[in-house]
Amino acid sequence: MNTTEQHPADTPRPAPGGRPNTPAALDIRNLRMRLPHTARPVLDGVDLTVGAGETVALVGESGSGKTLTSRTVLRLLPAGTTTEGTVHVAGDDVLTMNARQLRHLRTRTAAMIFQDPRAAINPLRRIGDFLTESVRLNKIMTPAAAQARAGELLEAVGLTTEVPRRYPGQLSGGMLQRVMIAAALMGDPTLLLADEPTTALDVTTQAEVVALLGDLRARFGTGLLFVTHDLGLAAAISDRVYVMYAGRIAETGPAASVFARPRHPYTKALLDSTPGLDAPPGRLVAIDGQPPDLRREPTGCPFAPRCAHATELCTTETPRSMPARGEPAHTAACHHSDRLEGTPGDA
Amino acid sequence: MPEPLLEVRGLCRTFGDVRAVDDVTFTLPDGGSLGIVGESGSGKTTTARIVVGLDRADAGHVRVRGQDRTTQPRGRAERLARARQIQMVFQDPYLSLDPRTSVEAVLRETLELHRPGTDPAPRIRELLDQVGLGTRAADALPRELSGGQRQRVAIARALAVEPAVLVLDEAVAALDVSVQAQILNLLADIRDATGVGYLFITHDLGVVRCVTDDVIVMRRGRIVESGRTADVLALPNHAYTRLLMDSVPRPGWDPHAIGAARRALRNDDTPA
Amino acid sequence: MTMTLVRRPGLARLRATDRGPLYLASAGFVGLVVAVALLAPWIAPHDPNTVELGNALAAPSGDHLLGVDAAGRDTLSRLVVGARTSLLGPLGVVVFSTLAGGAVGVVAGWRGGWLDSLLSRTTELTLAFPGLLLAILFTSVYGEGLLAPVVALSIAYLPYVARLARSLVLAERERPYVAAYRVQGHSGTDVCLRHVVPNIAPVVLAQCTVNFGYALIDLAGLSFLGLGVPALTPDWGRMVFDGKSAIQSGYPLSAIVPCLVIILTVVAFNVVGEHWADKVAGRNR
Ligand SMILES: Nc1ncnc2c1ncn2[C@@H]1O[C@H](COP(=O)(O)OP(=O)(O)OP(=O)(O)O)[C@@H](O)[C@H]1O
Ligand SMILES: Nc1ncnc2c1ncn2[C@@H]1O[C@H](COP(=O)(O)OP(=O)(O)O)[C@@H](O)[C@H]1O
Ligand code: SF4
Ligand SMILES: [Mg+2]
Ligand SMILES: [Mg+2]
After folding, report:
1. C203 lies in which domain range?
2. Would residue C198 count as lying in a domain?
3. Measured from the CB, is residue A294 less than 6 Å from ligand 2?
4. Own/partner pairs for C53-58, CB < 8 Å, 24+ apart?
5. Angle subtended by helix axes C147-173 and C197-224, to nearest 10
6. Beta bridge partners of B217
7. What are the residues whose beta carbons fall under 8 Å from the beta carbon of B172, sequence distance 6 or more?
8. CB of C270 within 8 A of CB of C14?
9. Cα first-last separation, chain A
10. Which of B51, B88, B89, B98 to mutate to test the interface with C (most CBs of C within 10 A)?
């Protein structure tokens, strides 16, 4: 709601963690999105940046708006949505692009990896065709160049040269997700959007895929927005995190600081409800209740009905994003962040 | 000595030349909770399917309180008796409910099958209450419910039969953390209240630590390690168990080392 | 779920998107044709078989809105009353082929094994035999009448429905909810009849609607060849056949109008069926 006032200028800013003098890979400002027949906006004043070559995690429970945020970046919006705010990818505003620019964005500048690789690939086409299809159709590369690039990328993701001749059904989930990553890198994007790319994989395969994403980021300088609901994973891989609740950014900051010293009760509650290997054994501290319904307009803090720290103020006034003392990059939208300070969260 | 609640001996199952389950043996005591962990393809689901009777074993047997259930059930009475021994909660709450059947109808069907002649309505209310769903959810179709709510319905459906053992195959994997915590707590409460035994299949060691007393670690169809959950996680003996533990993401985690360890472990195996 | 409706080449491209005007117009037309067939005796302006020889081949007029055919019968009345025969035949084909084919397909898909092989082989055998040829054979053996071609076409259509139902059941059987019911102690037959069949029914019904159009055109074709429907019965295909000579005399209306109605009805049924199929596919996605 009031978050724009926090930011000094309206020009694309370099992201906190990014390289200087290059536009941020992704810069979302005060994005508000409404779906038809809903009372409150699904996304409500989202501010999010991904610097060039930076890894940023977006966490939050199901339905909080993570997928919609990442899809907005490619302007893959459900029918009937209205948006306000700006979304810049490598300096260009996505929401005002024409069809040609949009095609360029989707094939070259930004790419997306989905949660379920099997659902995102045609089972009847060979892997090789799938990899080269987009660049061939959009005449970005000659078929020969496309094939060479596909071979190079498959090698980079640790797959052998016979994979292009195979069909999706002949590959395991982990191999297929590597293919998806290779496909996403075909156009040499500045920004990679990964929507829960490892949820369908088991832990050891997840580690390999994550290691791979890290290597590729270092090698190709791609900015990575990693959507997940696994806080441990977010803590392990990202430079910065955004915690989303009911379409708003509840808390953001450097990963280490957010997970060690959460300043929003929702972040704290999420950390407590994760059954980790180092967490205290026994009953988990679950967050009771459910996220707010899209059909009702909440007043005040959307987390208030489930929050242990809620006061009168919380139900009447919407909290603004405020930076932590001595740590301007770590902000939380909570009236009572100070009550959480000093309580170490265990990530 | 009394018979153990669930006893599995020498289970084997091959698909073509893949040994999906290879000499798997374990027991589950009354009211106990046993975890099965392992990576994808290690044979967890196949074991579970054999235990509940959805698949047959090539060798070995499954006994509940000493009664063998390896052969096909003969007749309706035996089928129902088997159902009351073991129930199952499936991984994907989006697919394990008939899209056309309302919550109330799902429970009614089961109750009418297992308790013919009694009015199911009070028991339906009780079950919905037990899994933390209000009676308001009773008329809902699965597509109107969230993933967590659907999984609660699936648990209520399994409990309606009053089984001695509940097999949960990755039952919380499709849920996000906050809902997962609610369901794990719910499962702990149900075990306290009813004394049902759990066979809990997962690849998440944090979850295993949270809900099981004992654990077996499976790899390529074989059990590579077993013991009390706390002991196994504190002092893993097998390199594979250590690999699984190291794979759990946490700050300072090094995914490269895991990939390397996984390859090293693979190379250690003598090619068959 | 895989959508595997059996389609004929030309019509397959005719698909309405969303609730577009094409779908609404088609649904409206289907409703109109059905209503006309039901109310035919009351709304037909003339007796369809009254011959006014003096009036033969008369052009449209206030009394005969669509003119009079070569035998001196009112074209509009024959069209209206003919809707009954023309729809009754396909209805019989669709009902019989769906019930029998659906049953065969469901049993084959659900039970699998030797039963499946046997049923699949038998249906394949029928599949290899052209439906129209079978119908011609039947009519030549049993003589005139609607029954013989309807039975023949039902047999010819049965394997298509059976194959569709079988593939749908095979996919549905693998869904975890089916395993869940088995674990609960429900018998296989119970699960199949109470859950699997209702879940595949919408797709089969969509195929039915498409088949209705195909059966209509097949039966009209037979009538046009002078087979099936007895000579004097008002029927669209028969009208085209009877109108042939009129075309040669330069009065094409009594042949063109029923021809047009046949085409429109077939297209309308096809659009409606495809639209339902798409809707089911969208819901299952
Ligand atoms: N119906 C089948 N036909 C052929 N092979 C099968 C079949 N079911 C399982 N397998 C094979 O058996 C092995 C064990 O499979 P299973 O499904 O039990 O693994 P899992 O541990 O449950 O894995 P996941 O975590 O992916 O569910 C795998 O190698 C799998 O490919
Ligand atoms: N196409 C759509 N039509 C209507 N509501 C939608 C649509 N897509 C998403 N939503 C709603 O928007 C909210 C955010 O969805 P999503 O971004 O998918 O969440 P997440 O990725 O965090 O699970 C949810 O309440 C969801 O129900
Ligand atoms: S503003 Fe109030 S209700 Fe919202 S998170 Fe902070 S303390 Fe809780
Ligand atoms: Mg999502
Ligand atoms: Mg499994």
Report:
1. 20-37+72-281
2. yes
3. yes
4. C57/C246, C57/C249, C57/C251, C57/C254
5. 150
6. B37, B225
7. B151, B180, B183, B184, B202, B204, B207
8. yes
9. 29
10. B98
Distance of CA B258 to the CA centre of its chain: 27
* Interface mutation target, options A64, A67, A177, A203, chain B, most CBs of B under 10 Å: A203
Measured in angstroms, the CA of B42 and the nearest CA of chain C are apart by: 20
- How far apart are the CA of B88 and the centre of ligand 5, in A? 13
> Rounded to an integer, what distance in angstroms lies between the CA atom of residue B148 and that of residue B150?
5
Phi and psi at B130, nearest 5°, equal -60, -35
Which tokens go with B180? 């997962």
Cβ-defined contact of B177 to A281 (cutoff 8 Å): no
For domain A26-295+303-339, say whether CATH 2.60.40.1180 is its number.
Answer: no
Chain B CB contacts of A259 under 8 Å are 251
Q: Provide the residue-wise pLDDT of chain A in tens; the chain has 347 residues.
A: 444 344 444 444 555 554 556 788 999 999 999 988 888 899 999 999 999 889 999 998 888 889 899 999 999 888 889 999 999 999 899 999 999 999 889 888 999 998 778 888 888 889 999 988 888 877 778 888 888 889 888 887 878 888 888 888 888 777 888 898 888 888 888 999 999 888 777 788 788 888 888 887 887 788 999 999 888 889 888 999 999 999 999 999 999 999 999 999 999 999 988 888 877 777 888 888 888 877 778 889 999 999 999 999 999 999 999 998 888 999 999 999 988 865 444 33
In-domain check, residue C53: no
Longest CA pairwise span in chain C (Å):
77
Exposure string for B201-229, b = 16+ CB within 10 A, e = fewer: bbbbbbbbbbbbbbbbbbbbbebbbbbeb
Under CATH, which number does the domain B6-237 receive? 3.40.50.300
Residue A66 CB less than 6 A away from ligand 2: yes
The predicted complex's ipTM stands at 0.86
In chain A, where the domains are located: 26-295+303-339
DSSP for A186-201, written as a single string = TT--SEEEEESTTTTS
Task: Provide the 3-class DSSP secondary structure of residue B18.
Answer: strand
Three-state DSSP class for C28?
helix
